[in-house]
Specification:
The protein has about 325 residues and is an alpha/beta fold. Helix content is about 50%, strand content about 10%.
């Protein structure tokens, strides 16, 4: 792909061409060395046209109903006149590296709508619940005219904190009456939640639902507040759409308040610095291990760690010494 093709791809993307948007995301996700320069140029063209959306993170434990919830929430966004883009992340296999990418099958109403864009992506081994180039994909969606970006995490529980670095607000989904489920989501993941939606509220009796909501409200009051406010706990059902409109109103009201007060802009700026450091760490590792002597030494130490001859700490210190020598 040459510069003229990148320029043409950008123009189609700006016109809202979903095929061009999909191709653009494929380009920025590519790990091929030849695609990196073109991806950087495309991102640079898109940057002046990005940043005007509301970025929402959707997280929760596996089985909580994230995809079904997004289907219902996305329909509510459409009814309110918005153009939602959904970036759904599926876990990659630690053995094969493959990913099912089946989120679209659980978003049938949205996937067929001409004003909606859905992109499933594999984590590719990334931690934090998101894919390697999720932020860049989000910028491309904004440049294509989508004003509500929904990031669906893989659903790994407390480790999914990176979604907080990329979004303006986070919706944590919980299940009523799940008992120990509260233990699986509290603390780390609850600290980044702006809203806790108790999904599948139509599947339990009122007493069980109220008890779960009460437990969650008590829990969030023990956590540090976000921007001076406590996470709101609301019931909903993705199947019947009960409570979805009410949750959307809360989200839009909170987003408008944070935009007007400057909280949103300040949060985006500070989080961009964190993302810079994360990306720099990753790219420096790629650059260093791109040197043949370093890569060969790393292969040797990895083999020793795997066989038990070396401890990971010992191996890393040996690699640091080698890198400092400039070998």
């Amino acid at each position: 792909m040459d510069r003229e093709l990148v320029a043409a791809l950008f123009e189609r993307l700006r016109d809202g061409d979903r095929t061009a948007l999909a191709r653009s995301i494929t380009l920025v996700e590519s790990t091929l060395e030849g695609d990196r320069e073109h991806a950087a140029e495309l991102i640079a063209r898109c940057l002046p046209h990005s940043g005007n959306s509301l970025r929402l993170g959707i997280t929760g434990i596996p089985g909580v109903g994230k995809s079904t919830f997004i289907n219902a929430f996305g329909l509510a966004l459409l009814a309110a006149g918005h153009r939602p883009a959904i970036l759904a992340v599926d876990p990659s296999s630690t053995r094969s590296g493959g990913s099912i990418l089946g989120d679209k099958t659980r978003m049938q109403d949205l996937s067929a709508h001409p004003e909606v864009f859905i992109r499933p992506s594999p984590t590719g081994g990334e931690l934090g619940g998101l894919a390697r180039r999720t932020r860049e994909s989000m910028l491309l969606c904004e440049a294509a005219g989508f004003d509500r970006i929904l990031l669906e995490t893989v659903g790994t529980g407390q480790s999914e904190l990176e979604v907080d670095l990329m979004t303006d607000l986070v919706i944590l989904l919980a299940i009523p009456g799940a008992g120990d489920e509260l233990q699986g989501v509290k603390r780390g993941i609850m600290e980044i939640a702006d809203f806790i939606a108790v999904n599948k509220a139509d599947q339990v009796d009122a007493a069980v639902l109220e008890r779960t909501m009460g437990d969650l409200r008590n829990a969030v009051h023990l956590l540090p507040s976000r921007s001076g406010r406590t996470a709101k706990v609301v019931p909903c059902s993705s199947i019947t759409a009960t409570g979805i409109d009410e949750l959307l109103k809360l989200v839009e009201t909170t987003a408008a308040e944070e935009l007007a007060s400057g909280v949103q802009e300040e949060r985006r700026r500070s989080r961009s610095v964190s993302l810079l450091r994360r990306d720099l760490t990753r790219e420096l590792f790629r650059l260093i291990t791109g040197k043949r002597s370093i890569k060969e030494a790393l292969d040797v130490h990895e083999a020793k760690v795997r066989s038990g001859e070396e401890d990971p700490f010992q191996a890393s210190q040996a690699m640091i010494t080698l890198i400092r020598k400039g070998v």
